[in-house]
Give the backbone structure.
Amino acid sequence: MSAYRRGDITLVHAEATEFLRELPAACLSLVVTDPPWNTGGVRRGANGCAYDDALPVADYEALMTTFFEETFRVIEPSGTLAVWADYRFIPYLAVWGDRVWGAQRRVGEIIVESLLGNPGKARWPVKHSTILLFARTPDRQRFDHAALPDVPRRPGGAVRRESNGKAYSYGTEKKAASVLSATLSNTDPQRVGYPDQKPEWVYETLIRAFTLPGALVADPFAGSGTCGAACESTGRACLLADRSSQAIETVTKRLRLTEV
Ligand SMILES: C[S@@+](CC[C@H](N)C(=O)[O-])C[C@H]1O[C@@H](n2cnc3c(N)ncnc32)[C@H](O)[C@@H]1O
């Protein structure tokens, strides 16, 4: 396994489950990851990078079951697992995750709405993905509600006028709940061209909500290294892995890592 580093960010060129197997038990505060969604094709980015995203369901189940087993072992008692995918396999991932973690440890989910691209008119548009949340010990999960983003309280204004003529003010903002609106536009300076790159602020939000400064966070399906960028901006240490040489090249460039 070749490794690359700068400061508190380490990247390993490895298959995700082999990378996790090398870690000691209970060493991570958070695993936040966006594994292959098994969309049934090849995912291609603007920079020429691509990865195969079409495993037979039994192979995908085997990969993700081992992933759930290893994350259960390496996440500390107050830690969290956040797994991001879409409608195609989220129901399967919930079941496969529950089999290993236990349904009582699946404590919620976040719907991530993206406004990118034309949704088309042939069928009901799918413009969201989902992050499943598992707590290693639900009643001891570290969580900071203040980390949630503020969102407008009501579209069109903060004042509601009741039928009795009285106006009630609710303030202009409240904390986000189950839905985050997160669009990474094609011209965003964050873009490195890697397929399926995610916005840094979603990772930053989860990292702030579920870990303390200085904590150790991991993403074993790192892609372009968004988790590493988010750990750097929030002051957390980060372990990244990906099996693709193109991902390794992209992350080392994006995060200015050197081989160790
Ligand atoms: C959805 S992309 C991650 C994108 C990332 N969140 C970002 O913002 O750039 C999934 C990544 O998982 C990697 N991958 C797929 N199967 C893998 C495996 N078994 N082990 C390690 N990496 C894998 C792919 O190479 C791809 O880079």
In short: Residues 15-16, 34-36, 51, 63, 194, 196-198, 221, 223-224, 226, 241-244, 247 surround S-adenosylmethionine (CB under 6 Å). The longest helix spans residues 57-74. The longest strand covers residues 75-85.
